[in-house]
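pls ignore typos typing on phone
fe (ii) ion + seq
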Amino acid sequence: MLTKKIEQALNEQIKIEAESSQIYLSMASWAETQGFEGVASFMFAHSDEERMHMLKLLKFVNERGGHAIISTLAAPPISFGSFKEMFQSLFDHEVMVSQKINDLVDVTLKEKDYATHNFLQWYVSEQIEEEALARNILDKINLIGDDKGGLYLFDNDVKMLTATNSQV
Ligand SMILES: [Fe+2]
Ligand SMILES: [Fe+2]
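k done
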């Protein structure tokens, strides 16, 4: 059984994961309109992953006798300035999500809810991977700057990255 406090905290995380999915979906659409197919497919895949994170939480809450709430989401930005800015905001967003997961883990310890604490370890590991991936891409794009040829190659690189990830 979940305490009300844990249930509420998990529902807040459900909203964050759903909003993450929408943000990356908006990034995908924007990248597609700019002709960057690789970046777009990376973002579409990332959006799907965030939806999976959200669903995993939803199932857990309901399984543990709570009620997972589907709520109104904040609208994501429509355009993202440059690819550099877009990947910077992706990285910043992931850092924020990691912080939220940490806060959530902290609540489970205070409430002595070890089942939820155990469940959340998957998210802790996932955030380490996502931050590393976002940092890696950001480093690459910082090297390229606004060089058109470099961005073209970068787009191809990201396409390969998406193909490799989806095989896992
Ligand atoms: Fe996530
Ligand atoms: Fe994420």
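The chain has a mean pLDDT of 94. The longest helix spans residues 114-144. more later
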